[in-house]
Amino acid sequence: MGTIAARDCLRILELTETVSAILTLAATQAIDLRDESEISSGSLAMRDRIRSVVPMLVDDRRQDIDIAELIALHRNGELPCPAPVPAPANSSPTPSSQISNDSTSAGD
Known about the structure:
Layout: H1 2-33, H2 41-51, H3 64-75
Helix pairs in contact: 1-2, 1-3
């Protein structure tokens, strides 16, 4: 059963990678349609790298090739990775004891 679970896990990771690529292409298209002054330099760098291999979508065309190109960039580590934005100093995670769980009373 371990082999089957490993194969299923790999398939899920591949599908997740594809969905992430599609989302990234959609975000890249959105950046192309906005005023560049409103976009961060990290996002612009990512857009520029993607656009070096995947042109902006202007007319209908097959998207599977674009998705494969973007996945290849990601797998080869060729996408710029902007520094993460730090969380505000006053933010703290909500303790699990403060989260209400209404599912306990659902069967009453």
